[in-house]
Design goal:
By secondary structure, the protein is mainly α. Helices cover 62% and strands 0% of the residues.
């Protein structure tokens, strides 16, 4: 039984034209994927935009934000060594992570930075705030905000950026 020439299918690994990424290519053409990618874009814009606003507000005292001096004093009052370094590092990381997420550039790095800084700020607010983990208490808005950013950053870490971003052609975008 000699093989018949010209009967190989696209899924036949013995076919010289067989491509390992054939199944991935078919999945990428799935029309339902567009809404998922759009949802990830909205999530990236929301998380990244909020981080950008928080970081820039701290640097430039937008919207009544207390600024770097007050942030440094808060950390120093709570016993942190190198409070000045921490006060500059937090908004810097927020701006970098926010920019990466908004652009869809190096999204795994942006999501990891967003997750780390949001989780740190959540724990800090829980430790120094009057409400602790009671996110429904009056005055617990910072805990709620940072907890929501932590959860959304964690989701982005696992889902990736989707197709709508600068690094859409990277493997982590699929």
């Amino acid at each position: 039984d000699a093989p018949v020439v010209g009967t190989a299918t696209a899924d036949d690994p013995d076919d010289p034209d067989f491509r390992e990424d054939h199944r991935d290519h078919d999945r990428d053409l799935d029309p339902r994927r567009g809404t998922l990618d759009f949802g990830l874009l909205l999530l990236r814009l929301g998380v990244g935009g909020m981080l950008l606003m928080l970081g820039l507000a701290t640097f430039f005292q937008f919207g009544g934000a207390p600024g770097l001096g007050a942030l440094e004093a808060t950390f120093a009052d709570n016993g942190y060594q190198f409070a000045g370094v921490i006060a500059v590092a937090i908004p810097t990381i927020q701006v970098i992570a926010g920019g990466l997420l908004v652009l869809g550039l190096a999204t795994p790095l942006g999501a990891a930075l967003a997750l780390a800084i949001s989780a740190f700020l959540t724990m800090f607010e829980v430790a120094v705030g009057d409400s602790g983990w009671n996110v429904l208490a009056e005055g617990a808005e910072p805990v709620r905000l940072h907890l929501a950013l932590t959860a959304a950053s964690l989701a982005l870490q696992f889902t990736g950026p989707g197709r709508y971003g600068i690094d859409f052609s990277r493997g982590w975008a699929r």
